[in-house]
């Protein structure tokens, strides 16, 4: 059985992470960008914010969708999203990369298909005319 | 029964949206920021990108987590995430706002709890000492 979707989205909970990493705007931004690159993503832009007194939030926009993070250093917890489109990128590489970088002793994940092509066609008034519904990489 | 979590995350699929809106970097950025404000979020920063030839991707970092979007104008489809923390913000207001702004004729959603406090405590080596695990708003 093959599920046709535009994207796949992994929702990750990293537990018992390194508190110093979770606190560091610089390290979180670095590791999130490195995780995107390791997964073979094309990085477009990113935005990160350090909260007072604790925690970092941010997102990396990639040509193939995005990565996002919110950290709670005081609890050793980080919520991460890795949303990817197309077949040239492997979100689980980013998962593994961050698990190691954060020193998480436990990780949990859910994978959710995003943009199921059958539904996009079904709910579109000219669904039959849409042709093959696929993720197309950006043109230069 | 009451579930204790740091955040709640709504994954939304908007179908059969207005193609002109889905194409417009300017409108997508405007509507995403307005949706965040309508939900009572504190906007920290945002980043949006227009793809060649089609589609817009972006994220709005809010003090209470983030909103993210990817649009496929040619299919009338948008994938949106609304991730919020704390009790002062209602992610469903953002859901309703965007559904209307995009002219989506069909919307589907999943809500996923993020940062379940029982698990954070369970997987933390000093879990019993963590005190009450709650989302704390940023201090000025």
TrEMBL record, chains A, B:
Pathway: Amine and polyamine biosynthesis; S-adenosylmethioninamine biosynthesis; S-adenosylmethioninamine from S-adenosyl-L-methionine: step 1/1. It holds the Pfam family AdoMet_dc. The active site is at 65 (schiff-base intermediate with substrate), 70 (proton acceptor), 85 (proton donor). The modification Pyruvic acid (Ser) is found at residue 65. The record marks 64-65 as: Cleavage (non-hydrolytic). GO terms for biological process: spermidine biosynthetic process. It catalyses: S-adenosyl-L-methionine + H(+) = S-adenosyl 3-(methylsulfanyl)propylamine + CO2. Is synthesized initially as an inactive proenzyme. Formation of the active enzyme involves a self-maturation process in which the active site pyruvoyl group is generated from an internal serine residue via an autocatalytic post-translational modification. Two non-identical subunits are generated from the proenzyme in this reaction, and the pyruvate is formed at the N-terminus of the alpha chain, which is derived from the carboxyl end of the proenzyme. InterPro entries: AdoMetDC_C (IPR042286), AdoMetDC_fam_prok (IPR003826), AdoMetDC_N (IPR042284), S-AdoMet_deCO2ase_core (IPR016067), S-AdoMet_deCOase_pro-enz (IPR017716). Its EC number is 4.1.1.50. One of its GO terms (cellular component) is cytosol. One of its GO terms (molecular function) is adenosylmethionine decarboxylase activity. Binds 1 pyruvoyl group covalently per subunit. The keyword Cytoplasm does not apply. Its cofactor is pyruvate. Keywords: Autocatalytic cleavage, Decarboxylase, Lyase, Polyamine biosynthesis, Pyruvate, S-adenosyl-L-methionine, Schiff base, Spermidine biosynthesis, Zymogen. Belongs to the prokaryotic AdoMetDC family. Type 1 subfamily. Heterotetramer of two alpha and two beta chains arranged as a dimer of alpha/beta heterodimers. NCBIfam families: SAM_DCase_Bsu. Catalyzes the decarboxylation of S-adenosylmethionine to S-adenosylmethioninamine (dcAdoMet), the propylamine donor required for the synthesis of the polyamines spermine and spermidine from the diamine putrescine. This is S-adenosylmethionine decarboxylase proenzyme. It comes from Propionigenium maris DSM 9537. The gene is speH.
């Amino acid at each position: 059985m093959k599920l046709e979707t535009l994207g796949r989205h992994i929702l990750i909970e990293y537990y018992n992470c390194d508190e110093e990493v979770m606190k560091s705007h610089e390290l979180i931004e670095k590791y999130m960008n490195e995780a995107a690159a390791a997964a073979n993503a094309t990085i477009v832009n990113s935005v990160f914010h350090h909260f007072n007194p604790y925690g970092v939030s941010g997102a990396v926009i990639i040509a193939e969708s995005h990565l996002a993070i919110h950290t709670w250093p005081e609890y050793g917890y980080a919520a991460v999203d890795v949303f990817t489109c197309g077949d040239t990128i492997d979100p689980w590489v980013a998962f593994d990369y961050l698990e190691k970088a954060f020193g998480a002793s436990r990780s949990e994940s859910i994978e959710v298909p995003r943009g199921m092509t059958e539904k996009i066609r079904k709910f579109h008034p000219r669904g039959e005319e849409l042709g093959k519904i696929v993720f197309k990489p950006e043109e230069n």
